[in-house]
Amino acid sequence: MRKIHKSIINLTYISRILFILTLSVLVMNISCGKKEKDSQLPKQYTKDTAKIISHVTSGIISSGDPIFIRFVNPVADKDKVGTVIKKNIFSFSPGIDGISKWKDRRTIVFIPNSKLKFYKKYSGVIKFNDLLPQYKQAKPFNCSFKVAGREINAITGEFDIVKENEPGLVKYKGEISFTESSELEKVKDSIFLMEENSVIPLDWKGGTIDTKFYFVSSTIVRSKGGTDLSLIIKKDKLEISEDIKKEIRLDPVKKLNITDVIKFDQGESPGIEVRFSDILDPSQDIEGLVSIIP
Question: Is the pLDDT assigned to residue 224 strictly greater than 90?
Fold first, then answer.
């Protein structure tokens, strides 16, 4: 193996710090919920019901989703598609205010006036037999569903050098995304970057109401022994399931660490990616720095 000169890790050429923080939070799988709600009728319903109704809202839904019932055969005239149904055929517990419309000749949708409450369970009765004369003898249809909550989808963050050739001064910047849209002001009031008992100010960007927000901290001074930071997320205003605390380590200038090793084992050219706490001089020869056995 070729001998590596000490200058291979020359920190005088550092232009910025890269630190990747990835947070995976266990969230309710909304896509699975939508698959459930679009599925065919559960087995407990009778064959007679299955001859009339093919799909109905059930399982886990998003807070902004409509509630719908779809019939096996076309039941409405073409000129009714898109029109509001004046007869109240939907009732829910807890109650939901909204309107009913013909989405197409086979489908009626109930559109709530406002988003449904997170984590709330609802039961409902759909009196389609009061609307459609051909099914006057049929029984009303009972349904139930649960609204998914807002959870954190991902957090990414990195340290950046404030000025060229001054690696001791950095800022922490990143982004946070949610499974459901949130308000920027609530995000600002709920997420904090802490150094011991001191709050490091964060500057936020994003839409007034959005699913993704961006932040950058004020300047942080790297200490000789390293700095321990905490990203703290409070659940109450964001309406997420639990408080979150993520520890972040900022290494001192003269200490180079490996922060992550990522394996790529797909395709014709498998390999690994090694991430350091500081960026190496790209002009330096790093041959032999990493070896793989066998």
Answer: no
Q: CA separation (Å) from 282 to 7, 11, 27, 102, 287? A: 12, 11, 40, 62, 12
CB atoms within 10 A of CB 287: 10
As given in the structure block, the two tokens for residue 83 are: 């029109």
Provide the Cα torsion 48, 53, 57, 60; round to 10°: 50
Report the C-alpha gap between 160 and 222 in whole angstroms. 12
CA-CA-CA-CA torsion sign (25, 31, 33, 36) = negative
pLDDT per position as a tens digit, 110-164: 999 999 999 999 999 999 999 999 999 999 999 999 999 999 999 999 898 898 7
Distance between terminal CA atoms of the chain?
14
CA distance 242 to 233: 9
DSSP letters, 160-178, are: EEEETTEEEEEEEEEEEEE
88-to-74, 96, 100, 147 alpha-carbon distances in Å: 20, 12, 8, 22
Q: Is the pTM value of this prediction over 0.90?
A: no
